[in-house]
From TrEMBL:
InterPro entries according to UniProt: Thiolase, Thiolase-like, Thiolase_C_2
Residues covered by the Thiolase C-terminal domain: 235-377
UniProtKB keywords: Transferase
GO MF annotations in UniProt: acyltransferase activity, transferring groups other than amino-acyl groups
Gene3D superfamilies: 3.40.47.10
Record protein name field: Acetyl-CoA acetyltransferase
């Protein structure tokens, strides 16, 4: 059985002054309406970020009793992982209609809490905390410093990622930075340092937001209002919790997750028309491009600097504006899927990638800890 995404929607974004459950409900009901379905059709639910008891709490709030659920906490990659598990559950007959959702009010609440998780309680913290790292900033900065040192690059390699993201955001009225105007490389490099070599412009936004996607069988999907977006392949990798356990900062789990996803789909990177890559920090995008095989190790900086990832480029990436300029509500992986679906449906207006048939969404969680890749295709 083939599985497809039949609904996708965002909750309110930016500064909402709404509760997490309100944002979750917005995303779920809007995605179901987009799919031409109702809560009565839902028998599968996956979510994270409400609390340590996320799925039961949301199910109760929505008034549903799902036959299948998942609330694995894996950071930003969780939602791509949920999609794989949901597809497997539908194929196995455990459920027929799955909603994957997320919501966070971290900006309104002035909080970086992701459901009460306390990273400092991890055992490896005793070896890392004495050095005073900013979580997760300093850890990504370590990878960025290593990257620039190994490949003899300058900070402009990182800065170009932020510049490209802003160009896409200027085409997306829902983007947090939609009215901010273009971002120049000089502004990125001259921004306030946070953790060397990263400046504030290298770091993702802190916003409220969320959304949901709805999955069912492709056979059923073809009878619903929206063009189905077919799940072609997926893969995941979990590599480390603390940075001291990472064997090579320049070889994250995207190498493994991407290989698995492409193998399942029977595709190559050259087949992909549009990319949605987790961009918690600018270095995340460079390492993910290399891990997924869109260029060789050490070549991503020059690739982005060539304009390939910008509007009109050969490798359109983070077409919503990404976590750097569109929205980043604590965990961004769900919104990567929403944008991928909209691109394959041709719904993106000024930022639409012409003729997009294959989309890739890749989530990264923790400190390059978890990785999940999904390949989606238009049902032509």
């Amino acid at each position: 059985m083939t599985v497809a995404i039949v609904g996708a929607a965002e909750s309110d974004l930016g500064v909402t002054n709404k509760s997490i459950l309100t944002l979750q409900t917005q995303g779920v009901t809007r995605a179901l309406a987009d799919a031409g379905l109702t809560l009565a059709d839902v028998d599968g639910l996956a979510t994270s970020g409400v609390s340590r008891f996320s799925t039961p709490q949301l199910a109760e709030y929505l008034g549903i009793e799902p036959a299948w659920s998942d609330s694995t906490f894996a950071g930003g990659s969780a939602f791509e992982m949920y999609l794989a598990r949901a597809a497997q559950a539908i194929e196995a007959g455990q459920c027929s209609t799955v909603v994957i959702s997320y919501g966070s009010n971290q900006r309104s609440a002035r909080s970086r809490s992701l459901g009460g998780v306390q990273e400092s309680h991890l055992p490896q913290a005793q070896f890392e905390d004495p050095y005073g790292p900013l979580f997760p900033l300093s850890y990504y900065a370590m990878a960025a410093q290593r990257y620039l040192h190994t490949y003899k690059g300058g900070r402009e390699w990182l800065g170009e990622v932020a510049v490209a993201a802003r160009e896409w955001a200027l085409r997306n009225p829902k983007a947090f930075r939609y009215e901010a105007g273009p971002l120049t490389l000089e502004e990125v490099l001259g921004a306030k340092p946070v953790s060397s070599p990263l400046t504030v412009a290298d770091c993702c936004l802190v916003t409220d937001g969320g959304g949901a996607v709805v999955l069912t069988s492709l056979e059923r999907a073809r009878d619903l209002p929206q063009p189905p977006v077919v799940v072609l392949g997926y893969g995941e990798s979990t590599t480390n919790a603390g940075m001291i356990a990472a064997d090579d900062l320049l070889r994250p789990g995207s190498f493994a997750s991407g290989h698995a996803a492409f193998a399942m789909a029977g595709l190559e990177p050259s087949d992909v028309d549009v990319l949605q890559l987790y961009d918690s920090f600018t270095i995340t995008v460079l390492l993910t491009l290399e891990g997924l095989g869109f260029c060789k190790p050490g070549e991503a900086g020059a690739l982005v600097a060539s304009g390939a990832t910008r509007p009109g480029g050969a490798l359109p990436t983070n077409t919503s504006g990404g976590g750097l300029s569109y929205n980043h509500p604590g965990m961004f992986g769900l919104l990567l899927l929403v944008e991928a679906v909209r691109q394959l449906r041709g719904e993106c207006g000024d930022r639409q990638v012409p003729g997009a048939e294959i989309a890739l969404a890749h989530g990264t969680g923790g400190i390059f800890s978890t990785h999940a890749t999904v390949l989606l295709g238009a049902d032509r």
